[in-house]
Amino acid sequence: xxxxxxxxxxxxxxxxxxxxxxxxxxxxxxxxxxxxxxxxxxxxxxxxxxxxxxxxxxxxxxxxxxxxxxxxxxxxxxxxxxxxxxxxxxxxxxxxxxxxxxxxxxxxxxxxxxxxxxxxxxxxxxxxxxxxxxxxxxxxxxxxxxxxxxxxxxxxxxxxxxxxxxxxxxxxxxxxxxxxxxxxxxxxxxxxxxxxxxxxxxxxxxxxxxxxxxxxxxxxxxxxxxxxxxxxxxxxxxxxxxxxxxxxxxxxxxxxxxxxxxxxxxxxxxxxxxxxxxxxxxxxxxxxxxxxxxxxxxxxxxxxxxxxxxxxxxxxxxxxxxxxxxxxxxxxxxxxxxxxxxxxxxxxxxxxxxxxxxxxxxxxxxxxxxxxxxxxxxxxxxxxxxxxxxxxxxxxxxxxxxxxxxxxxxxxxxxxxxxxxxxxxxxxxxxxxxxxxxxxxxxxxxxxxxxxxxxxxxxxxxxxxxxxxxxxxxxxxxxxxxxxxxxxxxxxxxxxxxxxxxxxxxxxxxxxxxxxxxxxxxxxxxxxxxxxxxxxxxxxxxxxxxxxxxxxxxxx
Length: 556
Description:
The strands form three sheets. A five-stranded mixed sheet has the order 3-6-7-8-9, with helices on both faces. It contains 23 helices and nine strands. It is 62% helix and 6% strand. It is an alpha/beta fold. The radius of gyration is 31 Å and the shape is elongated.
């Protein structure tokens, strides 16, 4: 473990601390309304959202691999957390979060941080946009103050049907507070040191208190109407875990881990581009894992790197993990001293904050741009998006990754070509040809040269058979050129062995040409020097043709 925090302390000075302190205070203030909103929207209490921001934010800054990463609860987890709590209860969420923490630590220890970056971009955009739409959908009731008998349906389509059926129960003042909060945040200057979400909460809270004093806004729900505020840090509790519980919660835990890894590394990568540094992705995953181990022990929820808060940190001068530590300290002071006042915040105002969060998450411009890409990318994007919205994120990620892998394999198979030459070889652009004259190399009668251009894997299992069936006649010698084969898998080796054995049974001699060192190493490990004969594995086509003439008994 090499946390960036320890490296920072070696050259830390007063001027850097001043910048980090100012940035940490601002980021702490920005994180307050978001932590409360994310906590409530996830189905837990507002203080649990803040505890997550304190504990996870502190650990991610202490142990992370990025200088400026700010950690805490994020909007991406809202749908996942709410679904887990609904199905398994809060104890199930604790176990799933702990498991996710362990998975993240393992990803970091096994140095798999870079692999996460290879998840196709349409999948990331698809489920991020799907989560954004789902978050927006969950906030309509509080945003408009709808009166709905019983609980709101959990699935997307039924939820909107329920809203449509109860649209006549809109509370005017709640709608004014909710939509007014959206307008305040949207129109508030982006460069202001005071975040628009905090301004909206202060204005709407004071406004509702005044209206309620005069008996005008009695139906506007506040946090205190639904939650009992407890401004005390809970004692750590280690969850009980059994094999049955772990097995049932492994899929949700894997979803939390994958999403947390993607979001944190994406945030760190964006930050790198601005500050001109390079984060340690494996160390960052270890920090995210430790944070998700500690957060539920103190009653918190899953956490990850937060892009918006990280950008706020950078824009306000934060350049080391000290800013993130101060941000956690600011939240702790607010939690201990000012948390009782949170009970007066209107629920409609928090819904407005989350509507803006959902809009910023949606990335609708990127979504629209991706619709101009190849049909395969569009299908991955739309399927992931629709599965996230209609079903859940776990299904969306699983199906999206499977579909992307299948499309990738199809594309790789399409790029691999098998061609055959029976008369001569053009020396132009021949990477494995030792050219001594400009004339074309003649292929002797009775010899065929097969060219494999691309990976030799299971995706092209029948390509040889297709080409040979088109040729019809049987040669005496087959030269298989593998100069453009970057790798060969087990199926490819199996097919190659079958081709050699089939050719031998038909009295056809096989010669391999231009095998690169990596592929040759794999072949030799699988005894291909015995199958085809070491004397029939040639480094380039010149020697392969000479060997063919030798087998055919013709002069050079």
